[in-house]
Amino acid sequence: MLNLRRVCFVLFCFLIANVGLAAAQHESAPVVARHLVGPLHILKCNDNAQVLASIGEDGTLLVDTGYPQTADAVRKELTELGSDSVDFIVNTHSDLDHVGGNAVLGKDAVVLAHPVTRLRMSTYFALPEIPGEGIPNLTVAGDATLQFNEDVIRILPFPGGHTGGDLVVHFTRAGVAFLGDIVLSETFPNSDPAKGGNASRTAEIIAELIETMPQDTVFVVAHGKSLTKSGLGEYLEMVEGTVAAVKKVVDAGNDLEATLKARPVAPWSKWENAEVGLTVDRWTYEVYAGLSDAANVSICAPLTETLVADGIDAAEKLYRHLKASEADAWDFGEGQLNFLGYQLLMRSMVDEAIKVFELNVESYPESSNPYDSLGEAYMAVGKNDLAIVNYERSLELDSHNDNAVAMLKKLRGN
Ligand SMILES: [Zn+2]
Predict the structure, then answer these.
(1) Structural domain count, the chain
(2) Which of the residues 17, 67, 340, 408 has an alpha carbon 20 to 30 A from that of 11?
(3) Ligand 1 mean position to 327 CA, how many Å?
(4) pTM
(5) How far is CA 75 from the centre of its chain?
(6) Are residues 87 and 229 in the same domain?
(7) What pLDDT is recorded for position 274?
(8) What value, to the nearest 5°, has the Cα angle with vertex 1 and ends 120 and 308?
(9) Is residue 268 part of a domain?
């Protein structure tokens, strides 16, 4: 189970990507275009992820490309807006709902991203179903400027807020800044430590944007309504307020469980959006994780690379080797293999997912969640006996595991 109280959270963008997948199969027009200003248009994919397009005499530039499933519909909208091909793509970060259309939309384009985005895409996203031709071919680690469609476009790295590779794209003449997922204007941010994000850093980035961007800038975000500078200021107050509240509890000597229990973020609960997993608990965890800077590089990164190149057996061998020889250099936390296993499950690589969940059970035999995840993977391939054994063990270790109770009921057909 992807348990919100565990170290590995299901990533916001994967959650909404999944919602997106389901929606894409039913909706005939999953992309809606809206004119913003001058050559700029916002294309909303599946009523959720927003792509920004500059269409003019010089051609077409896209900031982000939406889901893989909406790429053809984005292409169609662009054609209706007078664009015959895409010349530039800027990816604000590596989540699937931001890079998923790269392969279809960026065939003849220069694709720019932060080096960390490229790295993440060539590891996690090199797994099947994410075509390799969508990988960025130009990386931007420092400020870059592009003269395009009569605007001066600044591409500004602000890594470490939402992910380790966030870019902000500032259309200086139009007065528009696209913030990707650094800010989710209507909910708590998602400063995911598993992807190099950090809640305190998110607050710093927003403060810097407020300080450095022109007064009348319109801040467009990928999920949610656009903000003025004063709206961004209110958002910053929430982020700073919650970070300070959690810090106070942590400074008093509380661990994660105790901090969650104290609910320091409760006064800001109107910012919760449980539907996409952005709950008070989750944000509390992310702030907590950001304050305790224990984050080593996830063991998922080298494992995924090896899995793609040489298969699951080679990845397992590498896991055992690194655990024996470099245990301190990598994050071997329980959530890591859990995360990788779900990445594989989402791509229907069930055999590989089972192997990864089995490794996690072996590493954390006294923890409930790895058994729950393994049960889910066995259930996915119809190995119900093995699924039952694992859900039972999970429930033994955590009697509050309602998911295991529900799954056992389902598996036993009563
Ligand atoms: Zn997103």
Answers:
(1) 2
(2) 408
(3) 32
(4) 0.71
(5) 24
(6) yes
(7) 83
(8) 30
(9) no
